[in-house]
Amino acid sequence: MVLNVGVIGTGNIGSDHVRRLATQVSGARVAALFDVDGERAGAVADRVGARVHSQAADVIEDIQVDAVVIASPGDTHADLVLACVAADKPVLCEKPLATTVESALKVLEAEVAHGRRLTRVGFMRRHDPGYRAVKVAVDDGSVGEPLLMHCVHRNASVPAGFTSDMSLTDSVIHEIDAARWLLGDEIVAATVVAVRPSPLATNGMRDPQLVLLETAGGAVVDVEVFLHCQYGYDVRCEVVGANGTVSLDTPTTGALTRSGRREQAVPEDWRVRFAPAYLDELQQWVDGVASGNGGGGGSSAWDGYAATAVAQACVASLSSGARTAVGLVDRPTLYA
Amino acid sequence: MVLNVGVIGTGNIGSDHVRRLATQVSGARVAALFDVDGERAGAVADRVGARVHSQAADVIEDIQVDAVVIASPGDTHADLVLACVAADKPVLCEKPLATTVESALKVLEAEVAHGRRLTRVGFMRRHDPGYRAVKVAVDDGSVGEPLLMHCVHRNASVPAGFTSDMSLTDSVIHEIDAARWLLGDEIVAATVVAVRPSPLATNGMRDPQLVLLETAGGAVVDVEVFLHCQYGYDVRCEVVGANGTVSLDTPTTGALTRSGRREQAVPEDWRVRFAPAYLDELQQWVDGVASGNGGGGGSSAWDGYAATAVAQACVASLSSGARTAVGLVDRPTLYA
Amino acid sequence: MVLNVGVIGTGNIGSDHVRRLATQVSGARVAALFDVDGERAGAVADRVGARVHSQAADVIEDIQVDAVVIASPGDTHADLVLACVAADKPVLCEKPLATTVESALKVLEAEVAHGRRLTRVGFMRRHDPGYRAVKVAVDDGSVGEPLLMHCVHRNASVPAGFTSDMSLTDSVIHEIDAARWLLGDEIVAATVVAVRPSPLATNGMRDPQLVLLETAGGAVVDVEVFLHCQYGYDVRCEVVGANGTVSLDTPTTGALTRSGRREQAVPEDWRVRFAPAYLDELQQWVDGVASGNGGGGGSSAWDGYAATAVAQACVASLSSGARTAVGLVDRPTLYA
Amino acid sequence: MVLNVGVIGTGNIGSDHVRRLATQVSGARVAALFDVDGERAGAVADRVGARVHSQAADVIEDIQVDAVVIASPGDTHADLVLACVAADKPVLCEKPLATTVESALKVLEAEVAHGRRLTRVGFMRRHDPGYRAVKVAVDDGSVGEPLLMHCVHRNASVPAGFTSDMSLTDSVIHEIDAARWLLGDEIVAATVVAVRPSPLATNGMRDPQLVLLETAGGAVVDVEVFLHCQYGYDVRCEVVGANGTVSLDTPTTGALTRSGRREQAVPEDWRVRFAPAYLDELQQWVDGVASGNGGGGGSSAWDGYAATAVAQACVASLSSGARTAVGLVDRPTLYA
Ligand SMILES: [Mg+2]
Ligand SMILES: [Mg+2]
Ligand SMILES: [Mg+2]
Ligand SMILES: [Mg+2]
């Protein structure tokens, strides 16, 4: 039994997902796809023998499509997920689930009304071996009760057009999800601290930023997001518990020693750093869908909603300069 | 176009290969398989929808089998590879290519007579990202002319029945191939140095052993092989060049700090350590066969022959206590 | 020429200083000392052949004392330093210079009136090889313009009687000085963020705390202070610049690999971690005094005043929960 | 009570010792010194207020000299130590104790006849915190019975005039002593393995060399010595036991991350790397002499003799190309 997957959006990450589904993920094939750039869609489809549709909705409604991957621009996500729920098709939606809290809520409500979880949000870090080791150490009590979490999220640079808000909604949102997942706790407030911008930041971006997140239980998470750090892609995380700490290692392959220095390479970008995580995410999703459970271990529509709500509070705090409370609706029993 | 692979031997590594071919490798399926334990063969075949044959030869001769993976016991390898060559079918043979120099030579001669390279030997380390980074640093001149190579090869323990000779023919053979490949040089002599055996070594094994390999160009490789090190699986390698060195890192995911210690986990065994390498090896082979080149980048029958010859020199040295020259035949132009 | 040093306070750190001055520091001897516990003073004095005085003031006024080390409780520091200035004697005062901004200002004013710098504050981290390497990398432009600084300051535990305020005035004050020194910038605001206290924190302490410091130039420093971390003494620091970062390594001597783990020891306490820094601090001070410059490279009364002012802002912020501005007087030209 | 030390030889290491004794070591002063270069001797003496003698023997016989440090060229050591024994004065002799086995034996015999241990050989690694941590782990059973030891000894370069033999007698001799000390075992055979010389090695030196040392108990030590490695000073050591291993860390202060690389500095030379060890060595010696025990914890004349004997076996092996047995005399009870 092969799962027929439809893919909406075949830009950077979408075409990566198509390639993985076609060549590395077991039990799946790409049956159909759509992109606003028809030529790009055609080229990607040719490589994997998929049908090209002229509208995103057609992918979802395609009778031969069993499940959908959404990798189109973020502001299209919520409506597409709603269509998937309406069509009763499992969907893996790239983060964010929605760009507004309101639209995220609509997805929640639709899924609750539908009575079954169909949505998974593409927070791939939950599938990274390093993050999983942190999760194990937190959950098995190795570090004691978690009190603090320190995060660093750096890119060498970001494309033109990237804004200060996007640092929060597109980058920090990964730490938001990771913190909720690792600490097993909701985030109730966010504060963005103004930092002197790097002279190398483009577009007048506020970069770096320092974000503080507070959980319901009183743990505090600090996140440095710095998207023009120049030197490479660097994601770090340390959870500080009452009697120990656990932290990620940056994956390295080896060391070169010469000219008075021992050197280890830093990953170039997130594709290099998280390639195994993306693959595991897709495989777990395909396996989960195939076994009828919607893809265990990943993040639900609730997780997507909560992350969007926290990211929006960060945006508000960036604008106001003040600590901003995050008001979540009650968690539906579907997501208990 | 899907490559139909036949697999001979479905023990530990064979069933791993079947699983990978069926679920992770793109462009391949397991069409047929054989194992001396028919029940085991049947169970593995059921999981992937493969045919079971009652003899190894039938797998090779199966008209629906395009290429063959050999993962049966080492002393069966040479004859099976010969049969693949006779049948003009590409073959990925787990190391060793042969257990005697004579039978390895027969494979060489058959392939030379056949006039086309069909054989690839499963030295998976050539596909490990760490080893590849070492290779790049050696080849691009980052460390200068290579002079020395230090290797460590440790297992927590080995199964009952493992012998002192097998430390050389089954374990050190990986370092033999890695040294030849990384240094781009043939090994011309081997010396096994007697070390006090660990009191925890079973079966009266000489364990650890220290092996010295000399290359034609005068570089020296030392290898510690220690198969009852108790603490985990640990493979290290450092190439020392005229103006720098390059070394492997042991892959780690993170660090746990508690009770006065910062701790990083050591891989449990070779499956954990080299899982990505095995997968890459199979994918490269499948891609290579599909594109008609027999699987570029891996080790040839010549490499398998040379490794067997060096391993046999090690065995002779272990027995005699003396430095033992390795006499290789001239390299046929097929392997130039 | 040997510098005759008088030491006031021979508790933990004071007796350490006496021992160092007597046995490890070149060009100095301990001529006289005082402690409120006369018996303790006598025992320490016997070991080094020093005179014991019955009052702190007598040490300062002792005609045979060339320079003074103050290691008595913090609330006695300012008056003792004032007495040293009045006596025109160089003084190394353990941090803090003063426990109130007002008394710190009195020291400043006295020294300015005196017209010559006599005071050095014992911020030993400026003498740690790791911190100095960070300083070099910041100053030589290796990391570009500094934008952020992340600090961690953890003790396994603190003595009974240690309070939440003392986390700021006795522990974080080290980071305050380090940040000012490394970034070459004054701190203009402080915010203490409430974190869920560790269940293992004693005395109802707020522990850990997260402190944000903002510099005049817009750089932001975050400090985790956690004084019941259980596992050891852990001080870290990373300065993030516009094109790179530089961070401390925790000094280690080696690694033990066993039972599936590679382990490195964490220093037990600050004495172990900063022993070489304390020694260098004393030697530099003695050399500086001997050469008539008051001990170059260390922190001045201005540094001690600024650190006290920032620490007091932290205490105010802990109490109010609000960001608290630090109002410094104009820097006298004596400290330009 | 201050120990009056006489120093013979004020070249690189001798003048370092003078400086340390004068400024960093407690309980000692440099009373007298000698160097073949009288001008150099005078300059060094001036800095520390020592008397200059016109002959080495005069330093030893100086009635105001309590103990002697020998840092003159290696071939003068044995005779000077003999003179110290004759004068009943404790002596710290830089390695080697002697340049021939015969002269080392004479020292042994003289000391045995004298009936009291006066000689300590300057193997400073026994005072390095890293080596000491390895010693503790071996002695407390953390790694189980030691079976193998891997050593690396690299210098960026060596002065003109340094020879292949000196690699063994001046450099590897440190590993010889370290191995004997760490493993608690005598070395009974040595083999020097020919390695292709680095094209950057000067003076036609065989560099690098690979040395194998076998202990009486059957443990094997391999030593890479490479004195033109270009990149810095790098000393490593790993002891492999039956159930774990323990290794040195190279001391580092921090990491600089920029341009795709995380970099840590390698020490420039042995002075940087082992400065704390040299200081501890001198202090322990001074304390030991002062307390009448001759300086506990360091290496005795027996250790110096054994190291010389092993180094000479290495030289013989380098010349003959063969494994060379080390024949030690019976250990006198004075060194039990
Ligand atoms: Mg994602
Ligand atoms: Mg293999
Ligand atoms: Mg201090
Ligand atoms: Mg020495």
UniProtKB/TrEMBL annotation, chains A, B, C, D:
One of its GO terms (biological process) is inositol catabolic process. It catalyses: myo-inositol + NAD(+) = scyllo-inosose + NADH + H(+). Keywords: NAD, Oxidoreductase. Residues 137-322 form the Gfo/Idh/MocA-like oxidoreductase C-terminal domain. InterPro entries: Gfo-Idh-MocA_inositol_DH, Gfo/Idh/MocA-like_OxRdtase_C, Gfo/Idh/MocA-like_OxRdtase_N, MI/DCI_dehydrogenase, NAD(P)-bd_dom_sf. Its EC number is 1.1.1.18. GO terms for molecular function: inositol 2-dehydrogenase (NAD+) activity; nucleotide binding. Pfam families: GFO_IDH_MocA, GFO_IDH_MocA_C. The keyword Protease does not apply. Residues 3-119 form the Gfo/Idh/MocA-like oxidoreductase N-terminal domain. Involved in the oxidation of myo-inositol (MI) to 2-keto-myo-inositol (2KMI or 2-inosose). HAMAP family: IolG. Homotetramer. Belongs to the Gfo/Idh/MocA family. This is Inositol 2-dehydrogenase. The lineage of its organism: Bacteria, Bacillati, Actinomycetota, Actinomycetes, Micromonosporales. The gene is iolG.
